[in-house]
Structure formats: structure tokens, C-alpha cells
Amino acid sequence: MRGVPGHENDATNVRRKPLAPLPAELSGPARDFVSALRRMHGELGYSLQELAARLPASRSSLSRYLRGQSLPDERLLVQWCKLSFTGEDRLPALVELLHRAQEAADEAATTAIEPPAAAEPDAAAAADREVVEEVAGADPREAAPGRRRLRLVLAGLGTAAVLAGAAFAVMALTGSDADGRVAGDGRASAAAGAGPAAGSARITVNNIERACRHSRTDYCALGLARDPYAPYLRPNVVGRVWHGDVLQAICKIADGISVTDEAGGHSSIWFRVDHDGGRAWMPGIRVRPEQLDDELPRCPN
Asked: What domains lie within the chain, and their CATH numbers?
């Protein structure tokens, strides 16, 4: 029995640090799943470092799963259970609890993201409507002043738009450098800084499914996430990309939630990218493998 992981007489055994109690705010299906996962994990006798060497997940990711801070994907759970003598017997119940926890997380995220309330029309818009309605229903001779007022308002808006366009054109033609000085050739000397920022890199989206490598259908879209530490589910998706798309990566992390592709590959690496004028996160498992080792700074916590 000395070879059994966690045996007290095993000279190579590193005593496992006991897991901290689950937080009181963790409740419902998520608490039920994490409690069952902890019971199964307790039978293994592995430390988190030893467990990370046997599973396609980092030590920090495994710690978050056991603390209820995030949920593992189903394929990782299957591999986790296979390490235990009784894990495969527990697997059906654990998978069912995982599905319930994911559904509860989806519902909570959907509830938290409520559409903004419709803006109330302001007084000016209401007044303009009243003018138009009065003009439409009044005698032509009485409606003339109202029409003149409406034409004056529209003319004023048109003039403002023309002036704004002219100002933009002047700025585009002349330009200025960082100190406000205009370059001699009429172009902004700071234009050279329009390239990628220092420490950034271009990454290419990679879809492992061959059928999706030449298709831009909804089925073949891959999601960009809002939070790399939250479950990679629909409420966490803020954008979509397709195979071959090139993204500008700013930094990366190696301890995000583990994502599994269709071939069974896992990765907890995530890239922070620019997308549609904002920032989002791209899972490393969805990037060309040779680009995972690009020299990028680690994203701040």
C-alpha cells in the first residue's frame, strides 16, 4: 500500500494542505457540485501540484474549481474522475450536478445583464412633435409659422453638420505632432505611432474543425469572452470571430479557466485582444499552436 498516493508511509508523499471551508455565499447547485467534487478529490490523496501534473489544467485553475470560484468543463471532469478508484462510479452524478450548476450560472448571468430602460423623450423632442402635429392638422395659412420654425431648426442642424465636417477635414489634412506642432509635409509626425503598441503581437484564430475553416456561419463562430476566469459560456461571450481572423493581442495569462476544443485539447492560456474598439479575451486553445509561445507581457490582475 506504500505506493498508493497519500499513504502516510510513502516517503515521497507531500502532505496535502487541507482545503479551506467553502464560502457561505456559495449556495444552490454550485455548492452541491463543489461539495461532491471535493469528496471525490479527497479520495485521491494528491496535492494540487501533483494533480496539475496529471490533468490538462493549471494548479490555480484546479484550486478555483475546488473553491467554487469557477466550473470545470465536462471533459476535464471525466479525466479527473478516472484518477480515482471510485471516481467513474461517481461520474454520472457529478456530471448531472455540473450541468445544474452551469444552468444556474447561466440564469444568474442572464438576470444580471438586463437591457437598459427606454429613454424618455426629452422636452425638446416632445415640443418638436407637437409642432409637427399642429402643422399637420392645422389650416395651411395657420400652419405656415410652424413650418417655418421646423425649416429653421432643420437648416440649423444642417449648418452644424457642415461645419463639423469641415473642421474634421482640416484636422485630417494638417495634423499635429505630440506637442501640437504641424509637420512640414502636412502630415502628423505622430502617425508613425499608429502601428502595434510595444509588447503586442498578432494572433490568428484557429478552428480545429476542418468544416469550419472556410465557413463564416453562426455555427462556426468562436466566442470572445468578457472574463477569462468565468465559465466560458454564452453569458460571458462579448464578440465572435472565425477561423483565419487576425487579432491584436496586448498581453496574456496562463491561469485562466481551462477550455477544451473539439479534439480534446486543453489550455488555460488566454490572450487579451482588441476587438471592435474594446477589449476582450481569446482562449489560447483557439489560436494557432505556434503562437502560444509569443513573447507577450503577463496581463495585470
From this structure: 28-111 (1.10.260), 199-291 (2.30.30)
